[in-house]
């Protein structure tokens, strides 16, 4: 997940005079007590026309609890004066990442710098920030050019950096944690926070090891995940998508006909999550740029369309229809329980951070 446009790697301290930036630097100084990081400053950030949004990234070398590099970003929060009106500074967080290293290595790898900048690019372009318990697919290895099963990321609070109040508002430190595809699926079907808690005894401080296998190969973890799914269902109450369109055809004295256009990848999400949400009495939402579809469990099937939202009230039998009759293939589908809704499924093209096609679904 590396960027074609690499951040300039300059080993220099953060600039003085920026109140938001200084608050982060002060917090790190309290943790590292006189030690100096390697700092990689971005001389041409996105707001000045450059490709990468983050102002800089500091990297600390650690020996405990195992040798690793600790990366911390500057740029998701407001670095200079306060701009927004809410209580958060900018997006309200900075990202951290911990990468295991061999003893004696003196230079931090650059690929995490590019990975964090790519995450910054996603946040700034989409407007979607990260929160504790979020997860995200990298659509390929988190580090291109190196063999690893880690192709997804979980987000949790950095255990050594509590949230701070700055002159520009509050800032949380969210740690990026490398996950395998199998672990991402388990987190989707159950709960990211609970899964990361199960993983913590095997990866102290959630230090990422590129070489590791899936923790779901451990029978004890696999059993606890399965038990959690059966007990709790899924915590994934909303899924965001770039492709979700609704067209309504109104008819005189009869219910409208709606055509829902969505990507084949989302069909797989529906099949996985509707039984684990509605089956446990929990609602579920698909959210696109202009439209949302909100699903709720009901004793009878019905639907209504409003401004920017379609509400579907779905029986347990209809939940099974969504999970089995909609296909991850391009085409137009109609479910027996919702005769007036057409589901127009389009191919989904999966691209990595460089824009290269890595998979086509449908």
Model description:
This protein has 7 helices and 19 strands. It folds into 2 domains: 19-232, no CATH class; 238-350, Gyrase A, domain 2 (2-Layer Sandwich), CATH 3.30.1360. Residues 1-14 have low confidence and may be disordered. The chain has 362 residues and is of the alpha+beta class. The strands form 4 sheets. Strands 1, 2, 3, 4, 5, 6, 7 and 8 form an 8-stranded mixed β-sheet that branches. It has a 5-stranded mixed β-sheet with strand order 9-12-13-15-14. The chain has helices at residues 19-32, 111-126, 181-189, 192-199, 219-232, 264-277, 316-324; strands at residues 38-41, 56-62, 68-74, 88-100, 135-137, 150-157, 164-166, 169-180, 238-240, 244-251, 254-263, 284-287, 292-297, 302-306, 309-314, 331-335, 338-346, 348-351, 357-361.
Secondary structure blueprint with pairings:
Layout lengths: L18 H14 L5 E4 L14 E7 L5 E7 L13 E13 L10 H16 L8 E3 L12 E8 L6 E3 L2 E12 H9 L2 H8 L19 H14 L5 E3 L3 E8 L2 E10 H14 L6 E4 L4 E6 L4 E5 L2 E6 L1 H9 L6 E5 L2 E9 L1 E4 L5 E5 L1
């Amino acid at each position: 997940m590396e960027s074609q446009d690499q951040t300039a790697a300059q080993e220099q301290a953060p600039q003085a005079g920026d109140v938001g930036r200084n608050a982060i630097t002060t917090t790190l100084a309290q943790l590292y007590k006189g030690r100096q990081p390697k700092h990689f400053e971005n001389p041409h950030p996105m707001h000045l026309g450059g490709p990468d949004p983050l102002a800089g990234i500091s990297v600390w070398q650690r020996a405990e609890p195992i040798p690793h590099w600790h990366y911390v970003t500057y740029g998701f929060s407001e670095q200079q004066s306060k701009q927004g009106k809410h209580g958060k500074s900018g997006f309200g967080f900075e990202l951290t990442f911990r990468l295991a290293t061999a003893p004696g290595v003196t230079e931090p790898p650059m690929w995490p710098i590019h990975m964090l900048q790519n995450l910054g690019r996603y946040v700034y372009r989409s407007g979607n920030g990260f929160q504790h318990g979020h997860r995200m697919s990298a659509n390929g290895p988190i580090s291109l050019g190196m063999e690893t099963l880690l192709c997804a990321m979980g987000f949790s609070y950095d255990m050594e950096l509590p949230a701070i109040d700055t002159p520009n508002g509050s800032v949380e430190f969210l740690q990026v944690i490398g996950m395998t595809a199998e672990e991402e699926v388990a987190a989707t079907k159950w709960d990211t926070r609970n899964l990361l808690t199960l993983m913590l005894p095997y990866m102290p401080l959630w230090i990422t090891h590129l070489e590791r296998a899936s923790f779901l190969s451990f029978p004890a973890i696999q059993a606890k995940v399965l038990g959690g799914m059966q007990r709790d269902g899924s915590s994934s109450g909303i899924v965001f998508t770039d492709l979700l369109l609704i067209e309504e055809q109104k008819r005189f004295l009869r219910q409208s006909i709606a055509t829902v256009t969505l990507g084949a990848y989302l069909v797989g999400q529906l099949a996985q999550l509707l039984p684990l949400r509605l089956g446990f009495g929990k609602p579920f939402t698909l959210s696109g740029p202009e439209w949302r579809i909100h699903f709720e469990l009901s004793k009878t099937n019905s639907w209504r369309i409003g401004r920017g939202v379609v509400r579907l009230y779905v029986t347990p039998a209809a939940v099974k229809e969504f999970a089995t009759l909609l296909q991850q293939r391009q085409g137009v589908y109609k479910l027996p329980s919702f005769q007036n809704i057409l589901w127009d499924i389009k191919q989904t093209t999966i691209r990595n951070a460089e824009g290269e096609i890595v998979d086509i679904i449908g």
